[in-house]
Every structure is written in C-alpha cells, then in structure tokens.
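User: Please predict structures.

Assistant: First:
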Amino acid sequence: MSGVILQEKTDDGVLILTLNRPEAMNCMNFGMIEALQETVKEANFDMSVRVIIVTGARPPEGKKASFSAGADLIERRTLSEDKVRRFIATVRETMTVVENARIPVIAAINGYAFGGGTELALASDLRIASSNVMMGLTETSLAIIPGGGGTQRLTRIVGLAKAKELIYTARRIDAETALEIGLVNRVVEPDKLMDASLELAKEISGNGPIAVQQAKFAINRGFECSLGVALPLESKAYEITIPTEDRLEALAAFAEKRKPVFKGR
C-alpha cells in the first residue's frame, strides 16, 4: 500500500481509495498518479471488489478541504520539458485506467477539485459532491490545456458548448452549478459525503457483479459507436451473463421470495 494512496475495503466489497497528500491539497505528483494507476489495476484482479470510491484525505487543521487541487505545481517547476511530457502521458494513462476499471468508480468529491482533480472525477463513473465543492478545468489560466482527457470527457458529459465555455474561461464552479449542468450526480453536505457515497456503492454492490461489469462495458463502449454497432455490442455483453451462476441464483431467489446471494460467477 502506497502512503499517497490509502486503501480500505468494506465487507460489502467497496474499495475506498484516498488521495493522501493533505498537506499539499492532495495535488498530484508523479508518486501519487503512478500509485493510483497501479492500485486501480490491482483492484481489477481482486474479484471481491465490486465498487471503488475515490476521495481526498481530510485537510490539516485550519486548511481547506480538497479532493485534489490538480497537478503539483511545485514539482512541475522542477521538471524539464521532457519530464512534463512524461508526467502528462502518465496522467492521461491513469485517467484511462480509472475509466476502464472493471467495476464502477465513484468520485466522492470533497472541497477543491481543479485541473487533474476534476479530470479524475470525470474519469469516474459517478460523481457525488459535497456542498462546499469548487471545481473546474483551470488549465488555460496557466497557459496550458487539460491534458488528462478533460477536453474530451467534459464535452461528453456536459455538452460541447458548455465544455468550451468552462475550458476557455478556466472558470471555477460550485457544487450546485456542477449539479445543474450534469457534471455531478448529487450534492450533499460535507459530513454526509462518505455516507452517501457508501450508500450508493452498497446499492450497486448488491447487484450481480458480472452484470454490473458488462453493463459498464456496454455503456462505455457503446457510447462511442453508432446505434447499429452499439446494439450488437450490448447483445454480446448480455450473452456473457446468461450462463452465470448468479443469473440462476437471481431466478431461484425470486421464486423463493428471498434476497439473492451473488458470487460473481
């Protein structure tokens, strides 16, 4: 376990990953982004994990909460141009690993989420924000552009015109605005954030694991295709669920009027 990525697994198969650089507003340096990528990759091979929650470590006393305030600009100033290119490539690859995780990923966004912090939220399947959140792709204010997939994922979530407005202006938006434009799924009070995230994760983890995985695959891959390609893709994903023990267990539980016990087989 890396010190910059803390891990905790619940009995319900929920893996909580905490970005752990609170003294630096959980900003992303090489160590954190590489550790996050490796941790998510490893979770793909742990069949007991059914949902991932990503959040930021609580701040030191007197400091403001941060999911992640983006790239570590102190580290960035020490990097050569070639190392900056390597860092951005690593960020982009990590966000893709998060997006393509075998299981659903929930971003529990607490406090500031700028630049790479917003990009990590965008790469997640679902986003719950605390009411004190401020977020945005602020890179153009630093004379760069979002480099971890933000120009593409934000556009697909909030639409072309709104994404252009937010990226061109480097605007920071609050939680209610993020909810209004569809950037987050839900807003809760800060002290309710993890409870709400765990409640959602538990609701997901109670369903057939293979079915949830195949639904994610069909949605993510089908979204990029024409309907004529996406529908056969959905059909193939459905076929994978047919011979599973879980499907038979669901039918038996229905007949016996009990809650099914899914094993991911």
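Second:
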Amino acid sequence: MHGLGNDFIVFDARRDERNDYSRTAKLLCGRRTGIGADGLIAVCNSNICDTRMRIINSDGSEAEMCGNGIRVFSKYVYERGIVNKPEFEVETLAGVMRPKLTISAGTVTGITVDMGKPSFDRADIPMTGRGTFIMQELKVLNKTFKATSMLLGVPHTVVFVQDVRNEDIVRYGRDIEQNELFPKGTNVNFVHVTDEHSIEVRTFERGCGATLACGTGTSASAVACALSGLTGRKVDAHLKLGILNIEWLDDGRVTMSGPAEAVFDGEIDPSLLEGRSYEPGS
C-alpha cells in the first residue's frame, strides 16, 4: 500500500505480535532483493484503543509514528473489517491517533487524521541546547539554511529552500539527519513556499532516506511556515505524486487529509526468509 508514493508492506500481526520485526523489515523492504517498501506496518491488538499500529523503517528501526502510514493503516483495518466504524482510535508510540474516514460503497476514499500538537522545546524533539529552534541558521556542508525544528509525532527539521526539485535532498538530508544537534536523529523536510495557501515539500526520512511523501513531515512543514508568517494556517502541500491538505487549528492541533491506495495482496512463506541476507543500504 502507499500514501502518495510513501509505500509500506502491511500485515495483520494480531496473532503473532513478536517484539522484533527488524530483520524482516530489512529483508522485505529491499527494492532489488525483496518486495520493496519504505517500511513495514504491523496491525496489532490494543488494550486502550480500537487497534494499534507499529511501523518499522526499511533500515530495521522502529518509528514512533508516520503520517502516510496511519492513513494506509486506517484504510487497511476498515476495509478488512478489523474496525467497523469511520472514526476510531489507533495506539502508536507517539500517542493516540484519531483517523476520520471518507467512505464510498465500502471503500475508503480519503482519510483525515488528528496529528496532535507540535512541541518546539528542544528537550522534547530531542535536540541539544535550550529553548526553541525556529527560523535559525543551520550550517550543513557548504551551505547555510534557515530551519525550524519540532516534535510532531517524530522529530522534524524544516529547511527552507528556493527550489525543492533541484536541491540535493539526499546529500544535505543525510547530513542533517545525523547532525550532532539531534541525538536521536531527525526527519528533514525541504520546503518552498509558493504562496500564502500552498507549499512544496520533499522529505529525507530518518531510517528510510529520501521518500516520495511524508505525512508527519508535511504537517510539520505547514506548521513551520505558518509559525513564521510565510503562509496561513491552512495549506495545500504539493508532493511529488499529489497533495496533502494540512490545517494548524486554533487550539494548536494539526489535521492532515489525503489518500491511501492498495497496490497488491500476497502471501509470504517464512521459510524463504531463513538464511537470507538483506540488501545493504535499502
């Protein structure tokens, strides 16, 4: 499944909730030696919500949350009867998420998710130093960017550029992700403000690399733009394969609306994974 090109292998893990899917993610997410994906999404049981989502990046690390992932997850659990209502609660490592589905003839055609409130405190992100990091200079390799960092589900750093299409996202993204300012790493979002109501976003994701879309990153990007007066609080965020609608509400919460798509169904024979090595750098 995918959300605007951010793709995932989704499976029902309610009968086999092992603690470690790291090796499985590395094997299956390889684009040349596996199925190919940015990560795994496991549907799990929850004691506090209707259901629970785990997301494991392609490098084997587990993420707290994922904006495109939660939309994909929501479509999966509704259309397969795991939940049977258009609004429900999902337990994640970043807290409780509340998707609201648009449904036509039993098919989920759109998902709006309450992403929660961003935190700009460095200790929450986490980020070294004290106070906030809003529209400050960030020196990377041979360039100096204006950037803003926050926690919105996961750590995000929003970098403002003139042209997201020509910026070297992999080169600069990897350096910022691993910068000593961020002891647990950071997702990196390169943003160009088109006008008061629209932005362009490209993301280098922690644990994945450059991806076609990032829901939490796009949400963080919209917040950073509004916070600095570059846009209003509601924007259309243009990604490579489509648009996410982001609104930073007056109460401080952020909503994200967008699509999710199923690509194919299949079965994996666990015995085929035994003894295999994974694709380095996938």
